[in-house]
User: What shape does this take?
Amino acid sequence: MFILFGIVGIITLVFVGIPGIMFIIPACAAFANWLGKYNEAASCVNRFKKDGTIDCVTDDFRNGERFLNGRVIRGERYLMSRGSGTVFRLDDVVKVYDRTKQNGFAGDARILLAETRDGKTHELTFLSMKGKDDEDIRRLIC
Assistant: This one.
């Protein structure tokens, strides 16, 4: 009887436990990534509410020009990345450019970056490796 329970336990571990762990770890990593982006966007919204400029920002984006299928919005005074939820004042953005990011064995990724006056570089969104976003990038940079 002990051997039977041992065999059932091993079979259960192999067919349920290991695949379950292989699902749980990536799910936890994806949730942690989402939570970080959500907290960053929420703090940005709270900062604008505290400053009393939330209406100005929302009006600016409502009337702003959309680039890259709406992933980046440029208004008269602000630049927003919908992917990261970050909002930058156009006066603070020194330049916007694209770069190929080396990911090792996973393949390369092309990203759109914004450099601010304080010298920091921020990822705005991922771009197509096939070049279909090039026209939007040229219009955004000019």
Summary: The chain has a mean pLDDT of 81. The radius of gyration is 22 Å. The longest strand covers residues 93-101.
